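Deliverable D2.4 — example input (structure tokens):
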């Protein structure tokens, strides 16, 4: 039984690939995958805080690569699906997802299609994360300070990471959050706080399921209460 099955598999492969292709296949190496035991956290990178928001904001967009649509078979709004396809742990160069976003730096039209590409900082973080083994979570120590912070040091970077993928200009559904004036507009009308604190009756933001940390929500709340200054 065992032997019979083995032979039928070999025969099947021979018919499928043809003798010539088998010869070529023998020279093609599977991409190097970092062994599970060597996978580690990339210094300072936390999947939940740094990587997932990039995917949700720039690839999910509430439509393209988010559930249930998952364009081209890529659902990129949760760890399990992100890692299941297109990421080769330990090997950014062999990772299709990396290739498709990094190509934007060469001005080749690729991913995200018709949306702002990943920033250099985001690309560096993504590559470091994949190279270290693409593990879940990581160094998530909370470096958020809700007492001493500024608009330019905390609020703006938070918006850039979590919101700009979908709110990059005035024609975006839900409007722009790309400059101080439009962020302040959303702030003074109460929508910014209502949305990010997932208050019933508002649109829970970022669209796609996760919520900013309590500290980030506290920062925005205090910033608005203090007059939403451009400090
Ligand atoms: C994945 C895409 C996506 C992301 C990421 C996202 N938004 Fe939105 N946002 C939308 C869409 C779509 C709408 C329109 C919702 C509607 O009108 O039903 C919207 C609407 C809004 C609105 C205006 C509508 C309203 O009255 O609520 C605000 C303000 C807003 N988003 C803030 C944010 C903030 C702040 C972030 C980041 C912390 C964020 N969004 C991240 C897709 C996104």
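Example output (designed residues):
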């Amino acid at each position: 039984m065992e032997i019979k099955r083995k032979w039928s598999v070999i025969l099947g492969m021979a018919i499928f690939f043809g003798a010539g292709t088998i010869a070529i296949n023998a020279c093609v190496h599977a991409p190097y995958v970092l062994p599970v035991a060597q996978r580690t956290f990339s210094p300072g990178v936390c999947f939940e805080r740094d990587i997932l928001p990039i995917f949700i904001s720039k690839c999910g967009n509430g439509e393209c690569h988010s559930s249930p649509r998952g364009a081209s078979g890529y659902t990129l709004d949760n760890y399990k699906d992100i890692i299941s396809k297109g990421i080769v742990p330990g090997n950014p160069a062999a990772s299709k997802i990396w290739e498709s976003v990094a190509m934007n730096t060469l001005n080749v039209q690729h991913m995200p299609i018709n949306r702002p590409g990943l920033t250099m900082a985001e690309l560096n973080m993504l590559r470091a994360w994949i190279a270290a083994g693409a593990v879940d979570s990581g160094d998530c120590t909370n470096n958020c300070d809700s007492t001493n912070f500024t608009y330019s040091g905390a609020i703006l970077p938070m918006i850039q990471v979590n919101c700009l993928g979908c709110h990059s200009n005035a024609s975006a559904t839900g409007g722009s959050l790309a400059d101080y004036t439009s962020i302040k507009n959303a702030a003074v009308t109460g929508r910014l706080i209502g949305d990010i604190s997932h208050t019933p009756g508002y649109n829970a933001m970022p669209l796609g399921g996760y919520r900013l940390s309590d500290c980030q929500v506290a920062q925005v709340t205090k910033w608005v209460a203090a007059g939403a200054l451009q400090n």
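The pocket of heme C is lined by residues 56-57, 60-62, 162-163, 165-167, 173-175, 177, 186, 191-192, 195-196, 202-203, 205-208, 212 (CB under 6 Å).
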